[in-house]
Amino acid sequence: MDRRALVLVAVLLSTVTFPLTITGASVALPDIRTDLGAGLAGTQWVVNGYNATFAAFLVVTGSLADLLGRRRVYLTGLALYVATGVASALAGNVLLLDAVRLLGGVGAAAAVTGGAALLSAAFPGPARSRAFGLLGTMLGAGLAFGPSIGGLLVAHLGWRAVFAVPAGIATCALLLALAIPRPAQQPPTRRIDWAGGALFTGALLTVIAVLVESPDAGFGNPVVIAGWVLAAALGVGFVAVERRADAPVVELRLLTNPRFASYATAAATLVIVLVPLLVYLPSYLISVTGVGAGTAGLWLLLLTGPTVLLPTVSGLVARWVPTVAIAVGAIVVCGVGALLVSRIGPHTGPAGLAAPLILVGAGTGLTQGLLDGRAIDTVRPEAAGAASGLFQTSRLASETIGIAVVGAILAALSGDRLAGAGYTRALHVVGVVLAGVCVAGATGVLALSRRRAPIPSGATQTSRC
Questions:
Q1: The dihedral sign for the CA sequence 375, 11, 249, 69
Q2: Helical pair 94-122 and 70-90, crossing angle rounded to 10 deg
Q3: What HEC string does 72-121 produce?
Q4: Which residues of the chain are modeled with pLDDT < 50?
Q5: Torsional sign, CA 400, 401, 402, 403
Q6: Nearest CA-CA partner of 192 in 285, 32, 63
Q7: What angle do CA 260, 264, 269 make, to 5 degrees?
Q8: What's the half-sphere exposure (Cβ side, CA atoms, 13 Å) at 106?
Q9: In terms of Cα–Cα distance, which of 427, 52, 426, 394 is closest to 254?
């Protein structure tokens, strides 16, 4: 197997496991809580901790790949991900599980950025687009089929398999990657913005910590209030540092491009609705409707199936319909689905779940990949890498905060139990809140799209869409 084939197979094989341990683990949360005797907040950190460090460290590990070498960062990240996956499967208490999940998110971030850099170097020209198309497909497949695969693993092998099986797949990728020849070391093209990376990571982790712990501690608790003040201070510091940095870890100036900002807003809105439902609906179906983990995962295909099937359709529709119209229409469809979530109850079966889940999934699927490409088309070719990094970071950060916010609402309104009638009432409130997010998101996209901005030199005509 030549070097390009080794890179492609290894990166694609490892990539599918990273989102799998987000949505797959969500199906295992009820069993983890029971088996380890964990509280609600501790259990939520199993998903929130991994997702938070995954999102936060993407901005730093990309710079590390440039400085230390893409192969080295990919191998180190993948080895850390494998080790923490094994440790998660063997964890005997929730504190240890949460700790290794936090480290696992760091490993996944390094492997994703290092792997993407390996692909970019191995596949020049048109082949690069095809390689990254496959990469996006694997990420989407891991996210989409995570609940179904996770449910089957929990039902037949127990919750520990949700971490052990992805670690086993990633081990195969690691063995393949070790055979990739070492490239000649190139001098780093930029310095690492340590201050910006530390402030961004600190702000995001503080927000997640406050949201997860608030229902138990009390929203008016002085420690919670202090946490919000700290998060705000870190956020202000981050913006100030990035505006003055010669090589900022996040190119915030791109947000002054209204078209780019509108696409980023649309993508963020959709994941804020989709991913929290992927995380918390399985536990509702298991705890309240009484179905098994395997059945809950299969029912979630109503939500994830459209995200896999519809991206091709959106590419065809985009030939005749402006991208902004597709984005707003997708958000509206997603919002209607979110509002219908407020009708789900203890006796709801697949027929009752079909409308809300299919609509939310369809709204996301209609824009999957389309918004990424259009956003990058709005900037100069030499800024494409920075635009892609900011777009993915904003989407992952929004997804992470969305999971934490929904978890906080569910915990507060269900009496910290996520069971019984309280859980149903809390889920109904979440549906209304997510529908409101869609209203705000659609309004923001329309407002931004109406602002005029010059077409950047070298941008394609699709930036007019």
A1: negative
A2: 150
A3: HHHHHHHHHHHHHHHHHHHCCCHHHHHHHHHHHHHHHHHHHHHHHHHHHH
A4: 454-465
A5: positive
A6: 63
A7: 150
A8: 15
A9: 394
By the 8 A CB rule, do 79 and 67 touch? Answer: no
Tell me the per-residue pLDDT of 203-250, one tens digit each, with 9 for 90 and over: 988 998 888 888 878 888 899 999 999 999 999 999 998 888 777 777
Between CA 25 and CA 357 the distance in angstroms is: 19
Residues in Cβ contact with 390 at an 8 Å cutoff, skipping those fewer than 6 apart: 250, 251, 252, 254, 255, 264
Q: CB–CB of 412/427 below 8 Å?
A: no
- What pLDDT score was predicted for residue 450? 84
The pLDDT of residue 161 is 94
pLDDT of res. 456:
46
∠ CA 344-345-346, rounded to 5° = 145
329, two tokens: 């229409």
Nearest to residue 57, comparing CAs of 77, 43, 37? 77
For residues 297 and 307, what is the distance between their CA atoms, to the nearest angstrom?
Answer: 15
Question: Residues for the chain: how many in total?
Answer: 465
Q: Phi/psi of residue 140, each to 5°?
A: -65, -40
pLDDT at 459: 44
What residue has token string 């402030």? 199
Model pLDDT, residue 461 = 42
Amino acid at 337: G
Q: Under DSSP, is residue 352 helix (H, G, I), strand (E, B) or coil?
A: helix
pLDDT in tens, 399-445: 889 998 998 899 889 887 777 888 999 999 999 999 999 999 999 99
Give me Rg for the CA atoms of the chain.
21
Structure tokens at 198: 């530390």
Calpha distance 433→133 (Å, rounded): 33
CB 87 within 8 A of CB 56: no
Alpha helices in 218-300 (DSSP H): 222-244, 258-284, 293-299
To 5 degrees, how large is the angle CA 210–CA 212–CA 217?
Answer: 70
Side chain identity at residue 273, one-letter code: V
Q: Angle, nearest 10°, between helix axes 17-36 and 40-68?
A: 150
The CA distance from 275 to 22, in Å, is: 9
What single-letter amino acid sits at 247?
A: A
